[in-house]
Design brief:
Radius of gyration: 28 Å
Number of helices: 11
CATH topology of the largest domain: Rossmann fold
Shape: elongated
Largest sheet: 10 strands, mixed
InterPro entries: FtsK/SpoIIIE/SftA, FtsK_dom, P-loop_NTPase
CATH class of the largest domain: Alpha Beta
GO molecular function, one term: DNA binding
Organism: Nocardia fluminea
CATH superfamily of the largest domain: P-loop containing nucleotide triphosphate hydrolases
Strand content: 15-25%
Pfam family, one: FtsK_SpoIIIE
Strand order of the largest sheet: 6-5-14-13-12-7-11-10-8-9
Bound molecules: adenosine-5'-triphosphate, magnesium ion
Helix content: 25-40%
Protein name: S-DNA-T family DNA segregation ATPase FtsK/SpoIIIE
Number of domains: 2
Number of strands: 14
C-alpha cells in the first residue's frame, strides 16, 4: 500500500507540475510557488482534489470508482480553452460504462465543482476526463467574408472546433452523411461547405449538383452556383443516372491509364452531389422511384470516391429506412438528434462512450455537432459557420462561375442569317432614332 501511495504521489506531483508548467513557464530553484497559481477559479476545487492523494482517496470510494489500494491513476492534467482535461488509468476490473454512465459523470461534476464532466476512452484501460467549465461553441460564429484563396478539397474550412482550431472537412475522396433534427443547422453546414469550396467552384475544379427534394425552397437562391439543380423525383433520378454514367466513364478511363485516383481538373472537376433531406423524396416518390434512388445512390457511394464523385446527404432521421447505406459514408456529422439511438445510427454502436453526444446538444446551439471519420475512433465537437440569407447570396455572387455567353436577353433570339454588318440601330427603324 505504501508503494501505491508513493507511486501515486509521484504521479500526482508530475500532474501538478504539468498543470503548472502549462500555465506559468519556468520555476526557479528555491522559489516559493503556489502550485495552483493561475488555475482559473472555477477549476480550483477540482485542481485541489485531483492533485492531493488524500482527497482522491476519499473521492474514489465515494464515487464507486476505486477502493483502498486500488485507486485510478491520474496521469496528467492540462488546462484547455473549455476547462481541463485529465488523463486517467482505470483500475483493473472496471468497465468503461462504470465511468461513462450519466450518474457517475454527474457525481464527478458535483464532487469536483464543475458544471459538466465528460468521459471518453482514449485506449483500452485509459480515459479522457474533461472538466467543462465553459462551452467554447456556445456563441454562433459568423463566416469570414468571401475570399479568393486556394482550397484544399480534402480539408475544406467549414467552421470551428471546440479547441478553437478550424473545422476542416474532407470532401474529395469522401462522402459525407449529415444528420440532425429539424432546425439543428444542416442548412448552415451545407452552406459553410459551399462557402469553403467557393474559390474552387469559381475556378471550375468543383461542380455542385444539387438535389433539393423539399421543393427547391432552401437552395433555389443558389441556382447560379449549381451545375445541376433538381427537386422533383424524376429530375433527381435523371441527375443521379447521369452522375453514375460520368462515374463509370471516369472509372474506365482510370483503369486503362492504370491510375488509382482521379485528380480534379477543370475538364473533369470534382462532382459534388448534395442531397438535402433525401427522406423528403419518399414523401412523393413512387415505390419504383425510391428503389431506383437507392440503387443509384448505392452505386455512387460505393464507387464514386476515387473518381471524384462525392455525395453529401443531409437527413433529419438517420434510421435505416431513410438511409440504408450509412456505412458507406466515410465522414459522418451528427448535429442535434432527439434520441441516443439516433446518435448510434450515425456514429455506430458505442459511440456515446467514445464521446459522441448528439442527443445532448441543446436546441439553443444550432450548427453544433460531432464529426466522426473512418480511421479514427474519436469524435470532434464542432460548430458550422452561421450563414444567413444575405451571406448565402454573397457566396453565390462571389463564386458563381462566369457564364460563357457574355450577355443574355435579346441575343437569345439572335439568328445569324439575318445579321447585317452595316445596320445602325434606329436608322431604318420605323420610328427613327431622332423621333
Ligand atoms: N451554425 C449556426 N450558428 C448559429 N445559428 C444557426 C446555425 N445554423 C443554423 N442556425 C439557426 O438555426 C436555424 C435553423 O437552421 P437550418 O435551417 O440550417 O436547420 P436545418 O437542420 O436545415 O433544419 P430543417 O431540417 O428544418 O431544414 C437557422 O434559421 C438559424 O437561425
Ligand atoms: Mg434544412
Amino acid at each position: 500500500m505504501v508503494t501505491t501511495i508513493v507511486a501515486l504521489s509521484a504521479v500526482l506531483a508530475a500532474g501538478v507540475l504539468l498543470w503548472w508548467r502549462h500555465l506559468d513557464g519556468v520555476i526557479y530553484p528555491g522559489q516559493q510557488v503556489d502550485p495552483l497559481a493561475g488555475v482559473p477559479a472555477e477549476l480550483r476545487t477540482a485542481a485541489l482534489i485531483l492533485t492531493d492523494a488524500r482527497h482522491l482517496s476519499m473521492m474514489w470510494p465515494v464515487l464507486g470508482l476505486g477502493s483502498e489500494g486500488n485507486w485510478p491513476n491520474v496521469l496528467s492534467a492540462e488546462l484547455i480553452e473549455s476547462g481541463a482535461v485529465i488523463d486517467v488509468q482505470m483500475v483493473g476490473g472496471q468497465k468503461l460504462s462504470d465511468w461513462t454512465n450519466d450518474e457517475t459523470t454527474d457525481a464527478l461534476a458535483q464532487y469536483l465543482g464543475v458544471p459538466k464532466v465528460l468521459v471518453s476512452q482514449t485506449s483500452p484501460g485509459f480515459l479522457r476526463v474533461e472538466l467543462r467549465t465553459f462551452d467554447t461553441l456556445a456563441a454562433s460564429v459568423a463566416a469570414p467574408s468571401v475570399e479568393s484563396t486556394g482550397v484544399d478539397l480534402e480539408a475544406v474550412e467549414t467552421g470551428i472546433r471546440e479547441d478553437g482550431r478550424l473545422w476542416l472537412l474532407r470532401v474529395l475522396y469522401a462522402h459525407i452523411l449529415l444528420a440532425g433534427a429539424t432546425g439543428s443547422g444542416k442548412g448552415s453546414v451545407l452552406w459553410s461547405i459551399i462557402r469553403g469550396l467557393g474559390p474552387a467552384i469559381k475556378a471550375g475544379f468543383v461542380d455542385i449538383w444539387m438535389a433539393d427534394p423539399k421543393g427547391g425552397m432552401e437552395f433555389g437562391r443558389g441556382e447560379k452556383l449549381w451545375v445541376r439543380f433538381q427537386w422533383t423525383a424524376d429530375g433527381i433520378l435523371a441527375m443521379l443516372t447521369e452522375a453514375v454514367q460520368v462515374m463509370e466513364n471516369r472509372a474506365s478511363a482510370l483503369r486503362s491509364a492504370g491510375v488509382r485516383k482521379h485528380v480534379p481538373t477543370t475538364d473533369a472537376p470534382l462532382i459534388l452531389i448534395i442531397i438535402d433531406e433525401a427522406a423528403a423524396l419518399s414523401a412523393y416518390a413512387s415505390r419504383e422511384q425510391r428503389t431506383e434512388f437507392e440503387r443509384l445512390l448505392g452505386l455512387l457511394l460505393s464507387q464514386g470516391r476515387a473518381v471524384g464523385v462525392s455525395v453529401i446527404a443531409a437527413l433529419q432521421d438517420p434510421s435505416k429506412e431513410t438511409m440504408p447505406f450509412r456505412q458507406l459514408f466515410p465522414v459522418r456529422i451528427g448535429l442535434r438528434l432527439d434520441e441516443p439511438t439516433q446518435t448510434s445510427m450515425v456514429h455506430g454502436q458505442g459511440s456515446k462512450d467514445r464521446g459522441a453526444l448528439c442527443h445532448e446538444i441543446p436546441d439553443t446551439t444550432p450548427g453544433v455537432g460531432y464529426v466522426g471519420e473512418d480511421g479514427t475512433t474519436e469524435f470532434v465537437r464542432v460548430r458550422a459557420y452561421w450563414i444567413d440569407d444575405d451571406q448565402a447570396d454573397a457566396i453565390v455572387d462571389a463564386y458563381a462561375p462566369v457564364p460563357a455567353v457574355t450577355s443574355a436577353g435579346a441575343e437569345d433570339d439572335f439568328d445569324p442569317s439575318t445579321f447585317d454588318p452595316d445596320h445602325i440601330p434606329g436608322e431604318d427603324d420605323e420610328q427613327g432614332w431622332a423621333a
